[in-house]
Amino acid sequence: MDHKHQRVALNDGHFIPVLGLGTSVPEKVPKSEAFKATKIAIEAGFRHIDSAYVYDVEEEVGLAIRSKIADGTVKREDIFYTSKLWSTFHKPDLVQSSLEKSLKKLQLDYVDLFLMHFPLPLQPGTQLLPRDEQGKLLFETVDLCDTWEAMEKCKDAGLTKSIGVSNFNCQHLEMILNKPGLKYKPVCNQVECHPYLNQRKLLDFCKSKDIVLVAYGALGSSRSKWVDQSTPVLLDDPVLGALAKKHNRSPALIALRYQLQRGLVVLVSSFNEKRIKENMQVLRDFGLQGSCAVSFTCVHLSHAFAGQ
What we know:
Layout (H helix, E strand, L loop, with lengths): L6 E3 L5 E3 L1 E4 L9 H13 L3 E3 L7 H13 L9 E6 L6 H15 L4 E6 L27 H13 L3 E7 L3 H8 L10 E5 L7 H9 L3 E5 L21 H10 L3 H11 L3 E4 L4 H8 L12 H7 L1 H4 L4
Parallel strand pairs: 3-4, 3-10, 4-5, 5-6, 6-7, 7-8, 8-9, 9-10
Antiparallel strand pairs: 1-2
């Protein structure tokens, strides 16, 4: 980790800031909140903005980025922007056009990182989640390696500086890494990761392959309709609370610091100005160095597998 610039090196020579803002907007939150949150985040010091085609907020996020460039707060090269290839665009002839759609919405010339959002191709069309008459998802037969090769061409075309994956397991990664004629390795794998789901084996595998693990949901699974509501709330965890009290910090800052000390890049999502600014504090807090990782690694193994 480059502590001075608070970033880590990617295997293609580029660098990624260790803390990023996630811009996925909950169902009942207006998309305009993504614009406000992105502006506040950049003003607070965030330089890593994570979004995706499927989030349907790239117009708002792009407008926020351009407004902060226009007022002199940042230059384009200061911002690390991530977009993602949605599953209905896995066919090789659809990959570049998908990225170009995102760039048009963003009104940017390139993205810094382009990820394959899921290793699950869906049938192309107007529906983001195509289903049959019985409501079952309609999958498409596309070789992930063919999709990856099309993403490599996007990098060669200058539409993205780096390419990576998201929600991949070790077997999925091996498929790409063992691809005949592989030109570029994935620079990162973005997955849900927090003390209750610490992804230890995946992290070890990624480190062995020089692939950065990027954590979303770093403050625990969102309390959406997809999540079992009986699942413990991470920020209410008593061990986390005790560490927070000991170091006079919030439970959120302790959870974020834990991930940074493990060598992960961390994404946080918030539409609350106070919390956005508070989350930046983790980069200024070096007094917690070495205090969180030991506590969590063993204590929360049982939590990570609760209910499974």
